[in-house]
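Suppose a colleague, Dr. K., hands you the sequence of a protein chain of 448 amino acids and asks what its three-dimensional shape might be. Before reaching for any lab equipment, you can write down a predicted structure in token form. Begin with the sequence itself:
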Amino acid sequence: MSAASPSLEVMASAKPSARPSPAVAWLTIGVLFIYSVFAMVDRQIMTMLVDPIRRDLGISDVQASLLLGFSFAIFYTTIGLAMGWIADRTSRRALIGISVALWGLASAACGLASNFSELFIARMLVGVGEAALGPAAYSMISDSFPRHRLSLAMSVFIMGGLAGGAIAILAGGIVVAWSTTHASIWLPIIGELHSWRLVFFVTGLPAPFLALLAFLFPEPARLGRTSTPEAGSTAHLVRFLKANAALLAQLCIAFGALSMIVNSTFAWSPTVLGRTLHVAPVHIGITIAALLIFAGLPGQIATGWWVDRQAAKGDTTINLRIFLFTLPFAVPAAIIGLLWGDLTVFAVGMIPHYFFAMTFLGVAAAALQLITPNELRGRVSALFTMLITLIGFGIGPTLVAILSTSIDDSGMAIGKALAIVLGCAATVAFLALAAALPRFRDALQVRT
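The predicted structure, expressed as tokens, is then:
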């Protein structure tokens, strides 16, 4: 795409004072971080409860993978398009507040499911609620921070997901261990419940109260909107997507493959530790949580900070090129850890994996905002989220389960299957990112 392409309208320059103050901007990030934590807790808590749920409901590994990935992803992605449209036209903070309350109640409903179908539907409703957070938050953050602070701000928001993953893993491990001596509990009104069901009540019911935090900060002004009669219209969106189809396709393939790495690792690492390395549930939670806290969280911050630092020096394509440096050693280290058959090697191999490969989304989201007109950011972010979620969350975990079953139907090849998926996904991401660099550079030149 040439720099003269009409698809990427030059943004009207906004006065610096039009942005919220740094204090308000970071307050916004703080609240969004909390929502990101709870979203990931509600999304990932089931990864630690696979075996108790399988025993209680009598489901298979493939059905479990559908609950972990596809049930959530199908509505999270399709409803996300409508949420993006709403985010481009109405109050983004109100949309976020309503969605937080909805996904919390849906998560609590998971604890009431008595069979696979009911749990599948409840997980779909969790996806409906969470669908608004990403598009609305990305748009708000882009209007709150300048270019040279955007990747760090996005990374802090996304870091909430890693923190939520750590909480989900720790809490799930404790509950699984506790359930070995407390098979069921009794609650007023509800009655007797298997212990794993309580987790969904504890993680879901606080959400309606947390939704009120969205009104602690003001709605930021929408900056740099295109001054054309059709700005923000469906025709504008279609024209933008058609004219930039090659670049957007490359980015979705690349970031979808990275999403597959993240979600497959999240979904099946606890099972690998339990089944093949015979690690106790509490120690599984400690191991995964330690990787998230001591590798994933620092990696998220360091990645965002370094990308912003390089961008301030004039490196316009660093949001993509950073992964060309990190993937070739981060993912192979994880593969070695999965195949070696030793807990220490697993933990050491996963450190660079969690530091680099698991922390892509903040930088990726920033890259997308930089090439998208303001009035289209909600919908383009939703479309982007839909595609990478279908690839990463909808396909990734299920592909691992299918490969594992085809290799050994006893379920003991889950680590080998995960290693294969990680290796293939990393290769696809690397090639797609390398191919996208020239078009990404051209798009940035037009937008600045």
